[in-house]
Amino acid sequence: MNSLQTPHCSRCKRTGVPLVKYSKKLGRQYYQCRDCNRNRAKKYYATKAGSLAIKRAIKKYYKENRIKVNAIQAVYYSVITGKISRPTACSCCGNSGGRIEGHHINYNEPMKVVWLCSGCHADADRKLLDKPIV
Predict the structure, then answer these.
(1) By C-alpha distance, which of 97, 69, 102, 67 is closest to 86?
(2) Most buried of 24, 40, 123, 125, CB within 10 angstroms?
(3) Phi and psi torsions of 21, nearest 5°
């Protein structure tokens, strides 16, 4: 792509939308918008090969991240059984309009959870949060 062209979706030809960049083996690059990429992925996952690939990836993730998975499952079970209650507001920004998620600072202490909204949780995971989490 030369500098005069703007990137566009290779399927629907839309411009000005977030694009996912792909590379082919011969060095060619192409872009797809999120909608086209999602549709492509859904079609692949509906196939037998795609279904098996997902199952293998999940199994590998669970095996490599056993402590993390156990901590998340412990909090989930505690919320379901009523041992822990999920608050209605984010403990960082105070937002109560969206989804509130549990964030583990240390997976070796599974019941120590900070309840954050989706945005603050993503920031905390990226360690971009300026405010200290209490």
Answers:
(1) 102
(2) 123
(3) -95, 135
Residue indicated by tokens 């959870």: 113
Helix, strand, coil percentages (3-state) for the chain, rounded to 5, are 40, 15, 45
Tokens of 131: 């405010």
pLDDT mean over 105-128: 87
63 pLDDT exceeds 50?
A: yes
Report the chain's C-alpha Rg in angstroms.
Answer: 20
Residue partners of 103: CB distance under 8 A and separation at least 6: 113, 114, 115, 116, 121, 124, 125, 133
Q: Tokens 């083996």 appear where?
A: 25
DSSP 1: -
The predicted pLDDT at position 2 comes to 45
- Model pLDDT, residue 110: 92
Q: Are 133 and 105 spatial neighbours (Cβ–Cβ below 8 Å)?
A: yes
pLDDT digits (tens, 9 = 90+) for 68-99: 999 999 999 999 999 999 999 999 888 887 88
